[in-house]
Design goal:
Layout lengths: L4 E6 L5 H16 L4 E5 L17 E5 L3 H6 L7 E6 L13 E4 L1 H14 L5 E4 L8 H16 L6 E2 L9 H14 L4 E5 L2 H14 L7 E6 L3 H5 L6 E4 L2 H16 L8 E4 L3 E3 L12 H13 L6 H8 L3 H12 L3 H18 L5 H7 L5 H12 L3 H9 L18
Parallel strand pairs: 1-2, 1-3, 3-4, 4-5, 5-11, 6-7, 6-8, 8-9, 9-10
Antiparallel strand pairs: 10-12
Keywords: DNA-binding, Transcription, Transcription regulation
Organism: Pseudoduganella buxea
GO molecular function, one term: transcription cis-regulatory region binding
Length: 406
């Protein structure tokens, strides 16, 4: 009989990073014959007192919170630490194996993406200095290194911590910072939550995204994306791989392997590139303003006349500008974003096609069906089946559908 070990997972299940690490641990258990009974609090920070006396066999813990390292310093069972990487080797916890997200590579991936988009003004939106935010300060170090390497002066704004009483003040300060930056500018936010705040500030200030401010976050958090009007680009951390690696290390330790001070850095898994960072230099301010409006409201059923009203010019004049600059109509641009949104829903898994059509601003599921057939050569149902089978994605060609719904 295989022995079943009792393992504590000390993570905050409210954080997307922690949840993905836990998912990786579960994937390791499912792919091996390892048998663990898992102890998992919704938020372990509420019950750290006495954890060093826990009568189990091992612990995997989030060490980004310095209180955790202190609480587990006297722990007598094997511990594997998970957290962010550090520029200085002295900052790593001593005596425990450590699996880290590579903070420098996270920032470099976002930095290179914005540079490749043609942006030369870059800034970072970080978090206030605090012991629990050490990982954010490490990301700042990476950003500063890249900027100085390129002979540029780093621009970092930390703002305030999220707080209901100070929310209005924080937004006003973010808008003032955004106005102070040279445009166009690319901004790296240390998390998707911070990126979402800036997207809201840009919307309130009437700052066009991504023409004036191109923005990318870190975490690829689906909840944060659902709460933004403009689809948000994000660096995908290798958090699941970190979880699998941490579980493998602990499994080895439970079988007598000594791994103290082992350090493994896990690189990011890639970038989910969406509208917020797809910077294109617009030649005419009316086109830039119109596209900013369309990105926010395409899925709410807007029509060409409403876009023209927002810009403050006639429909025919706006159509002329669009044809000259983009080679398409205003309706084509609206429809392109609706298609992108529908494809995003279908790629994420099971969903009702009628609900998708409504959420994406199509007047009916039949109309969405005809758009898919004309532009992608398949029905929404066929596209969904293709996504489930992990077949290569179909490219979205330039739209040229008759303006039936404009």
């Amino acid at each position: 009989m295989l022995r079943t070990h009792r393992i504590a997972l000390l993570f905050n299940a409210n954080k997307i990073f922690d949840r993905e690490v836990i998912t990786g641990i579960a994937a390791y258990l499912a792919s091996t014959r390892t048998a663990w009974d898992l102890f998992l609090e919704e938020d372990f920070r509420l019950r750290l007192s006495g954890i060093e006396q826990w009568q189990g066999d091992g612990i995997i813990a989030d060490y980004d919170n310095p209180q955790v390292a202190d609480a587990l310093a006297a722990c007598r069972v094997p511990v594997v630490a998970v957290g962010g990487s550090y520029d200085s080797p002295a900052d790593y916890p001593a005596g425990v194996p450590y699996v880290a997200t590579d903070n420098f590579k996270l920032i470099k991936l976002a930095y290179d993406h914005l540079i490749e988009a043609g942006l030369r003004n870059l800034a970072m939106f970080s978090l206030p200095e605090a012991q629990e935010n050490r990982w954010a300060q490490e990301r700042e170090k990476g950003f500063c290194h890249l900027m100085r390497r390129d002979k540029l002066e780093p621009e970092i704004y930390r703002g305030q911590c999220t707080s209901a009483p100070l929310w209005n003040e924080a937004v006003e300060q973010q808008i003032a910072w955004l106005h102070s930056l040279p445009k166009p500018v690319g901004i790296i936010a240390v998390t998707d939550a911070r990126a979402r705040q800036l997207l809201q500030a840009c919307a309130l200030a009437g700052i066009e995204v991504p023409e004036q401010v191109a923005l990318i976050g870190i975490d690829n958090d689906p909840l944060a994306r659902m709460l933004t009007r403009i689809p948000m680009s994000s660096v995908i951390q290798g958090a699941e791989e970190m979880g699998r690696t941490a579980a493998h290390l602990l499994d080895q330790m439970l079988h007598g392997v000594r791994l103290a001070d082992t350090r493994i850095l896990v690189p990011p898994a890639g970038i989910n590139v969406l509208a917020s960072s797809k910077h294109e230099r617009a030649k005419h301010p009316h086109v830039m303003r119109a596209r900013h409006f369309i990105r926010q409201y395409a899925c709410q059923g807007i029509k060409t006349d409403q876009v023209a009203d927002y810009v403050g010019i006639s429909r025919s004049t706006l159509e002329c500008y669009f044809r000259q600059e983009l080679g398409c109509s205003v309706h084509d641009e609206i429809l392109r974003l609706r298609l992108e949104a529908a494809i995003g829903f279908l790629d994420r898994g099971d969903c009702n096609l009628t609900d998708v059509a409504i959420k994406c601003g199509f007047t009916s599921s039949q109309y969405m069906h005809s758009v898919f057939k004309r532009e992608l050569g398949c029905t929404p149902r066929a596209y969904q089946e293709r996504a489930r089978s992990n077949a290569p994605a179909l490219g979205l060609p330039p739209l040229g559908i008759p303006d039936l719904q404009a």
